[in-house]
């Protein structure tokens, strides 16, 4: 199922360690695109270039404080995810709450890293997330799945399924989408894959594939979408060393 991306990853692994400045520029490029696209999917109106200057510490006129914070927070959350990977830490609910706390920091501190205490609905989706009083149980079930079944899956499938299960639970009032994409990349990066970028122009296919997982338990479209983005990131890295 994942033969082609495994072959490409093997090529990348054989070329490691990559030249220092090549690696630095690839990382900066992917992290900018990841931050821009993940925020844009959720309605942030900063362009790619505006996102870049905000990351450099410059304020963009005519944009809200929230939009600026979403960029800074996403950068901090990526740094935290990298830290988890470097320390080879096992996934935990505590880590997930920490990622979310960084995503919502300064935007909605009362809800940052705190499971929701009310019902929410996902705009445009057929799926309705579970009632708030079932969230703890659902998150524990997700963690059990991760350690009993997910751990044996290919990193791409494991990351995609973790993302899909998490976003189906929708454990937080806000910031679930960004957090789910950070968790997806956490799993990929743990296995030595470069991070993937779910592109804003693919938002419709992305939402439809996720809704299909939640309403029919058919995850094939969503896994295929993630697999395509993984291959894109691998191709970018391989183009830098060819």
UniProtKB/TrEMBL annotation:
**Residues that coordinate or bind ATP:** 174-181, 206-207
Question: Which GO biological process annotations does it have?
Answer: cell division
Transmembrane ranges, per UniProt, are none
Site entry: Important for autoinhibition of adenylyltransferase activity: 42
Instruction: List each copy of the Fido domain by range.
Output: 91-228
GO molecular function ontology, one term from the record: ATP binding
Instruction: Note the InterPro entries from the entry.
Output: Fido, Fido-like_dom_sf, Fido_containing
Tell me the lineage of the source organism.
Answer: Bacteria, Bacillati, Bacillota, Bacilli, Bacillales
Where do the catalytic residues lie? Answer: 170
* Keywords from the named record: ATP-binding, Cell cycle, Cell division, Nucleotide-binding
Would you tell me the protein name for this molecule?
A: Cell division protein Fic
Gene source species: Sporosarcina luteola
């Amino acid at each position: 199922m994942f033969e082609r991306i495994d072959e490409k990853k093997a090529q990348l692994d054989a070329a490691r360690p990559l030249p220092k400045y090549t690696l630095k520029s690839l990382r900066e490029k992917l992290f900018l695109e990841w931050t821009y696209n993940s925020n844009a999917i959720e309605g942030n109106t900063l362009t790619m270039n505006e996102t870049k200057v905000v990351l450099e510490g410059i304020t963009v006129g005519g944009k809200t404080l929230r939009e600026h914070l979403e960029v800074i927070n996403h950068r901090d959350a990526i740094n935290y995810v990298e830290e988890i990977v470097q320390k080879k830490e096992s996934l935990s609910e505590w880590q997930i709450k920490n990622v979310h706390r960084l995503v919502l920091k300064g935007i909605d501190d009362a809800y940052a890293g705190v499971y929701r205490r009310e019902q929410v609905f996902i705009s445009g989706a057929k799926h309705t997330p579970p009632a708030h009083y079932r969230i703890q149980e659902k998150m524990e079930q997700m963690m059990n799945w991760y350690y009993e079944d997910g751990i044996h899956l290919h990193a791409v499938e494991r990351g995609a399924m973790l993302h899909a299960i998490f976003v189906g639970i929708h454990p937080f009032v806000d910031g679930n989408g960004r957090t789910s994409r950070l968790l997806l990349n956490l799993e990929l990066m743990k296995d030595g894959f470069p991070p993937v970028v779910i592109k804003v122009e693919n938002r419709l296919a992305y939402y439809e594939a996720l809704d299909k997982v939640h309403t029919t338990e058919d995850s094939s479209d969503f896994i295929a979408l993630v697999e395509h983005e993984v291959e894109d990131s691998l191709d970018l890295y391989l183009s830098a060393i060819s």
